[in-house]
């Protein structure tokens, strides 16, 4: 029988598991694929009932891939506990639109939304919106600006801005709405400004948790305190733990660490090595049996705050993961309990922050 | 130019849509029955009720800067609306037939990005998406965007037209055979051979306002591409609709005005080289219904009282006077002082568009004096969209609507509920069955796509698109 202390210790080192839902249909892989799901809803429900804490939705340009934020929104009303986290580009997408779309995702998912803020070099996307191609350090600069705009806009309505005061006829308290007056910093590639306030009340979580690739976070890039978690990539599974420790050391304890892992499992009578034929992703790739994956993930989940799995074939690997991997990890106490009706912030152990503008002396126009 | 029959044959039926405005003074929040304007459950409730009533579409409005009042966010308005496409993608998973219409402006979006997101919504909903094209052009909204307030009033529809032609080119650029029908193409990791090489045309546009060089990434949806609505009433706006739109979201629901508007649109549509019935018309409207006409009249008075109280009346006038009027008695006559601004300003929120404040306020003072109206009475009459309302018993209003259907004055109505989230209940429970009895309203959805349910033809490939480069 465990004591309360034991359980606390177990909980402290228990991590969460995320799954990338590429392969669920409407993402460039689902059409006509024999391993696809009948619907996106079916796939996200399978991930939720398997016990995954987080579903992510990729969004780099690719033929057939439907907008990730809309896929996450579609999944919102049909799920209860799984966090829904789309990739949303920070470079070529209007920051004001990004901010309101993500806030809306939080509303339609009951506070389970997050954001993987991406900034990658895509000359095709630049040409599509008639802009110069952004590359190098300017990418992180764009990401930092877009994140800052979103955060300010999410705070621009104080939590109690809607007052519905029948006596004075006021629906909102104008003192609790704020201009964000954002201007890009000196030396910014293509400068812009955003006035605010947002057009939607503060998201249910106050601030959505923001994730970003560790490669764009740090001094001179996206400041560590601008994100809640980073995605850490290593070339091999063996190097992943060391990389996680390095990033933790570099960014400090306030940023959660999520390890990135491709998985190819022995499944349906086929050895994983035979199935491991897909293109190289640049991420560590685990190839083997479900039982060995449990042994690999258990210590990794103690080291990182969470691990994101990228299955070779969503339907095939999800089957194996649901049947063998997650139950065993739970039995060993390596997985955080899913938070029933909780928010994504709850899962990450983040308190709901006050609006930066919430101060007795502030008024609209400041 | 192709020849079309200039004869317009009324379909004899009506369609309904619901306009969830998001920002308005029409939704009463002071009533005990009123729920949240922003909770997802309100949207789900309204969309599912509308679907139960076989409504063609659920509409969301758009406004990308909060309205202001004398330099501050307008405290009396019901405000706070989610992003249309995100909300509609969520509603797609809890509805099956109703169309999902997003109001999106052509000025603060990039054509390739917007076309891609609309295609996404169309695919995710199985062919139920629509785009209500609006043309916001004020510097006011522009302050929230990279581009800033850059568009002259005169340029708006020129820009809008280039935008929608580019969007159509993007939607038309997937050859029907781009995806192999045997299901062999498109499996994981084979993006290189899917779609087939050369099956997608690159779209190139270089114009005064934007440059697009884009290889589309999404196939056609079951309805080919989103249904196009247009909202905007100027001659330029009507011509734009006549050339490009499938449906006009108009502002003329009263019978005579509706008939005149229809005639005008038929003429413009023929001039644009399209058939007389190519563009459907669904005016914005409000329905206040009850079992008897006396009860409906009472209900209307109650709704108006809650919509516009003394503070709303004064604030309404302040928008046009451009100055504080809080010392004025809502039960007294209109203020006899001059407005603070002579020229109206596009950067000051709603209320000022297209009218000179001095002339307008003088005219209003005279009008109210002639009718013996107090400030409150005047504003209630002016602001509550009275000309857009159908007030009466279920059967009276059904009779009225049947007349509209018979002469083809409109193709349907786009209803703004006066109460969230239950404002459609009596329409669906009582008016719809009466309309069905009269044979002027569908008894089932015709198909699964919005285009099918509105009775619209599938667009010709590349009919009105920009030249594309293969
Ligand atoms: C019924 C109706 C609904 C409209 N809804 C919106 C809306 O939700 N968002 C918006 O920005 N403009 C909306 N508009 C404004 C029009 O897009 C347009 O900007 C305005 O009518 C001025 O254009 P015009 O001079 O052609 O009439 C609406 C217009 C009408 C008639």
Describe the structure in brief:
The complex is a heterodimer of chains A (366) and B (470). Chain A is 34% helix and 16% strand. Chain A is α/β, with parallel strands linked by helices and 366 residues long.
Please describe the structure with a list of short key phrases separated by commas or semicolons.
heterodimer, A: 366 residues, alpha/beta, 8-stranded parallel barrel, two-stranded antiparallel sheet, 11 helices, 34% helix, 16% strand, globular, disordered N terminus, disordered C terminus, B: 470 residues, 14 helices, binds flavin mononucleotide
Describe this structure in words.
With 366 residues, chain A is of the alpha/beta class. Chain A has helices spanning 4-13, 40-50, 68-75, 95-108, 123-128, 137-155, 237-251, 272-275, 290-303, 314-331, 344-348; strands at 16-20, 54-57, 83-89, 115-118, 162-165, 170-172, 182-183, 193-194, 210-213, 229-232, 256-265, 284-288, 306-311. The radius of gyration of chain A is 21 Å and the shape is globular. Chain B is α/β, with parallel strands linked by helices. In chain B, 36% of the residues lie in helices and 13% in strands. In chain B, the strands form 3 sheets. A 10-stranded parallel beta sheet of chain B has the order 11-10-9-6-5-2-1-14-12-13, with helices on both faces. In chain B, strands 8-7-15 form a 3-stranded antiparallel beta sheet, with helices on one face. The complex binds flavin mononucleotide.
């Amino acid at each position: 029988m465990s004591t309360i202390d034991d359980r606390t210790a177990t909980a402290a080192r228990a991590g969460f598991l995320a799954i990338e839902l590429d392969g669920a249909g409407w993402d460039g892989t689902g059409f006509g694929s024999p391993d696809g799901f009948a619907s996106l809803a079916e796939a996200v429900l399978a991930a939720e009932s398997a016990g995954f804490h987080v579903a992510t939705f990729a969004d780099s340009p690719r033929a057939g891939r439907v907008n990730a934020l809309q896929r996450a929104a579609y999944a919102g009303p049909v799920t209860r506990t799984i966090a829904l986290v789309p990739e949303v580009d920070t470079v070529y997408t209007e920051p004001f639109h990004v901010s309101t779309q993500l806030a809306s995702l939080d509303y339609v998912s009951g506070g389970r939304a997050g954001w993987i803020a991406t900034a990658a070099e895509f000359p095709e996307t630049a040409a599509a919106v008639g802009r110069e191609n952004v590359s190098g350090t300017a990418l992180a600069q764009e990401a930092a600006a877009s994140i800052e705009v979103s955060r300010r806009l999410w705070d621009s309505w104080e939590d109690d801005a809607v007052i519905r005061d029948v006596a004075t006829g006021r629906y909102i308290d104008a003192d609790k709405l704020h201009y964000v007056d954002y201007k890009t910093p000196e030396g910014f590639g293509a400068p812009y400004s955003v006035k605010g306030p947002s057009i939607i009340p503060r998201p249910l979580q106050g601030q959505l948790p923001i994730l970003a690739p560790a490669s764009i976070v740090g001094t001179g890039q996206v400041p560590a305190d601008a994100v809640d978690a980073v995605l850490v990539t290593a070339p091999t599974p063996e190097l992943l733990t060391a990389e996680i420790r390095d990033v933790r050391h570099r960014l400090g304890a306030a940023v959660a660490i999520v390890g990135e892992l491709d998985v190819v499992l022995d499944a349906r009578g086929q050895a994983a090595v035979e199935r491991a034929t897909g293109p190289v992703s640049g991420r560590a790739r685990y190839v083997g049996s479900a039982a060995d994956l449990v042994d690999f993930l258990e210590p990794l989940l103690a080291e990182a705050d969470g691990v994101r799995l990228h299955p070779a074939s969503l339907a095939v690997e999800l089957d194996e993961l649901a049947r063998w991997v997650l139950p065993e990890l739970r039995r060993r106490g390596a997985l955080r309990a899913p938070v029933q009706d909780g928010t994504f912030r709850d899962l990450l152990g983040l308190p709901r922050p006050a609006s930066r503008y919430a101060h007795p002396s502030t008024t609209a126009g400041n | 130019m192709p020849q079309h029959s200039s004869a317009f044959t009324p379909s004899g039926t009506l369609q309904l849509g619901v306009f969830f405005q998001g920002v308005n003074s029409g939704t009463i929040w002071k009533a005990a029955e009123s729920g949240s304007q922003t909770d997802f459950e309100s949207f789900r409730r309204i969309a599912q009720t509308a679907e139960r009533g076989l409504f063609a579409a659920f509409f969301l409005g758009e406004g990308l800067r909060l309205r202001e009042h004398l330099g501050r966010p307008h405290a009396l308005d019901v405000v706070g609306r989610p992003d249309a496409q995100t909300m509609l993608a969520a509603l797609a998973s809890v509805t099956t037939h109703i169309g999902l219409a997003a109001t999106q402006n052509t000025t603060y979006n990039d054509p390739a990005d917007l076309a891609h997101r609309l295609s996404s919504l169309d695919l995710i909903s199985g062919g139920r998406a629509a785009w209500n094209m609006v043309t916001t052009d004020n510097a006011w909204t522009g302050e929230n965007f990279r581009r800033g307030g850059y568009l002259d009033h005169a340029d708006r529809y020129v820009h809008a037209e280039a935008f929608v032609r580019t969007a159509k080119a993007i939607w038309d650029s997937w050859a029907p055979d781009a995806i192999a029908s045997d299901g062999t193409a498109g499996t994981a990791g084979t993006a290189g051979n899917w779609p087939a090489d050369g099956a997608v045309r690159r779209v190139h546009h270089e114009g005064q306002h934007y440059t697009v060089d884009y290889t589309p990434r999404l196939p056609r949806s079951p309805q080919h591409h989103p249904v196009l609505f247009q909202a905007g009433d100027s001659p330029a706006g009507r011509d734009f609709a006549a050339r490009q739109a499938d449906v006009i979201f108009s502002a003329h629901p009263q019978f005579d005005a509706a008939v005149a508007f229809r005639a005008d649109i038929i003429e413009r549509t023929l001039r644009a080289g399209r058939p007389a019935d190519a563009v459907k018309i669904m005016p914005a409207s409000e329905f206040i219904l009850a079992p008897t006409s006396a009860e409906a009249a009472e209900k209307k008075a109650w709704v108006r009282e809650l919509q516009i109280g003394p503070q709303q009346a004064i604030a309404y006038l302040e928008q046009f006077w451009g100055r504080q009027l809080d010392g004025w008695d809502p039960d007294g006559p209109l203020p006899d002082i001059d407005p603070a601004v002579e020229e109206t300003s596009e950067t000051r929120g709603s209320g000022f568009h297209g009218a000179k404040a001095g002339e307008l306020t003088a005219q209003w003072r005279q009008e109210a004096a002639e009718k013996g109206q107090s400030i409150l009475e005047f504003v209630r009459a002016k602001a509550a969209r009275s000309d857009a309302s159908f007030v009466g018993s279920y059967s009276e209003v059904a009779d009225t609507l049947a007349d509209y259907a018979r002469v083809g004055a409109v193709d349907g109505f786009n209803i703004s509920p006066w109460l969230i989230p239950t404002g459609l209940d009596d329409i669906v429970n009582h008016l719809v069955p009466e309309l069905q009895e009269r044979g002027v309203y569908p008894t089932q959805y015709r198909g699964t796509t919005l285009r099918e349910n509105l009775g619209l033809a599938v667009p010709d490939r590349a009919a009105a698109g920009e030249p594309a480069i293969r």
